[in-house]
Amino acid sequence: MSEQYLNVEQLRAKLGNRSLSSINRDIANGTLPAPIILGRKRYWPLSAVDARMAEKFEMAQSDAE
Questions:
Q1: What is the DSSP annotation of the chain?
Q2: Residues forming a β-bridge with 8
Q3: Domain tally, the chain
Q4: pLDDT by 10-residue block (mean), the chain, 65 residues
Q5: What is the domain range of residue 22?
């Protein structure tokens, strides 16, 4: 199966309509993976975004225990 990619609007929707400045901050501090840049467009591998979100969820769960 081929990798799926999210553009910035799809990423924003997946993250609950997070602002672009928040997404850029998350990339800078490592909360989100860096995008692949093609021309002037940015794309994120769906699997990398899902994996990072799962890591954050697991950390939040362990912190709550």
A1: -PPPEE-HHHHHHHTTS--HHHHHHHHHTTSSPPPEEETTEEEEEHHHHHHHHHHHHHHHHHHH-
A2: none
A3: 1
A4: 93 96 95 95 97 88 76
A5: 5-64
